[in-house]
Design goal:
By secondary structure, the protein is an alpha+beta fold. It contains six helices and 15 strands. The strands form four sheets. Strands 10, 11, 12, 13, 14 and 15 form a six-stranded mixed β-sheet that branches. The chain has a four-stranded mixed β-sheet with strand order 3-1-5-4, with helices on both faces. Strand 7 and strand 8 form a beta hairpin. The longest helix is centred in the middle third of the chain and has 19 residues.
């Protein structure tokens, strides 16, 4: 059996900016830092303004007002300056988004943009308390919300999901295509964790439900935030039997096949889903943890 680890940190897991959680409720410190704070504006589609080199363009936080405003989220401190994020309806300039920028930004910008998209997505859907249904307002510089009726405090929600590379213990891997994906686009299998379920149990259940294969030797590889809208992808590997029939009973998978390591290596060399290469197999782009898991598995030598 060929064992492997992730060769590199998943792209959206990189961050070199301190979140400075201790300042989130320190109004005096936040006001003191507001004067020269940077502001990252994000539209409802998750787009931001970038310069001609594809770098994030920050504005001045004081453009929003002379002091921190409700709805702005404190992201942390970078190079001695506070950094905030804010949802805006309209952006002017050259626009891009995390799925495209995630692989090209440096660690600091990648971490800040990932965090900004995730927390702003949560605020978009958390305007009313899940406990009493009353309108809620942001507090803790954007890291919680308070019910206007009961004062109940709610925190950002993250939905855990497993993503698993199923292999045969040798040189074959199971890849599948969802019905909404164009033909030839394949990836490893994934699914959301259910209430009261362990991660390992979720891996076994999801793979059985999606393709009808029993797996064993489930092992954790690493994780990556996936704020589309608010998931955390937990990467695993497991072993299955290529002789077992593939059954697509729940409708989440259109087709699946066992591919050889050589076929995966060739597909990785051709690029990603955006490639126009005439090949039966196209794989996810670098911003996805699926790509990193596949690259790590493909790099194993007998």
């Amino acid at each position: 059996m060929y064992d492997f680890q992730l060769n590199e940190t998943p792209l959206l897991s990189r961050s070199s900016v301190g979140r400075a959680e201790e300042l989130r409720s320190d109004e005096a410190a936040l006001e003191a830092g507001w004067g020269d704070a940077q502001l990252l504006r994000v539209n409802p589609s998750g787009q931001v303004v970038v310069d001609s080199d594809g770098n994030l363009v920050f504005g001045a936080a004081t453009d929003l007002g002379p002091e921190p405003v409700s709805g702005a989220v404190f992201l942390g401190i970078r190079d001695g300056r506070h950094v905030w994020a804010h949802r805006v309806t309209v952006l002017a300039g050259r626009l891009s988004e995390l799925r495209i920028l995630g692989g090209t930004l440096g660690d600091a910008d990648a971490g800040m943009l990932t965090g900004a998209v995730a927390i702003l997505n949560w605020h978009d859907s958390a305007g009313f308390s899940a406990i009493d249904g009353a309108p809620s307002r942001p507090t803790m510089s954007g890291w919680s919300r308070i019910s206007s009726t009961t004062g109940h405090e709610e925190f950002p929600r993250t939905d855990p999901a497993v993503i698993c590379l199923v292999h045969d213990g040798g040189d074959r891997v199971l890849l599948a295509r969802q019905p909404t994906w164009p033909e030839r686009r394949f990836s490893i299998l994934a699914g959301f964790v259910e209430a009261g379920e362990s991660l390992e149990t979720c891996v076994i259940r999801e793979i059985k439900e999606e393709v009808g294969v029993d797996v064993h030797s489930v092992r954790y590889l690493g994780s990556q935030p996936w704020p589309f809208p608010r998931s955390l992808m937990l990467g695993f590997t497991a072993i299955g039997d290529p002789a077992a029939p593939l059954l697509f009973a729940d409708g989440e998978i259109a087709e699946g096949f066992w591919f050889t390591r050589a076929e995966v290596r060739k597909a990785l060399e051709l690029g990603d889903w955006a490639s126009d290469a005439d090949t039966p197999l196209l794989l996810p782009g670098s911003v996805s943890i699926a790509r990193g898991i596949l690259e790590s598995w493909a790099a194993v030598r007998a």
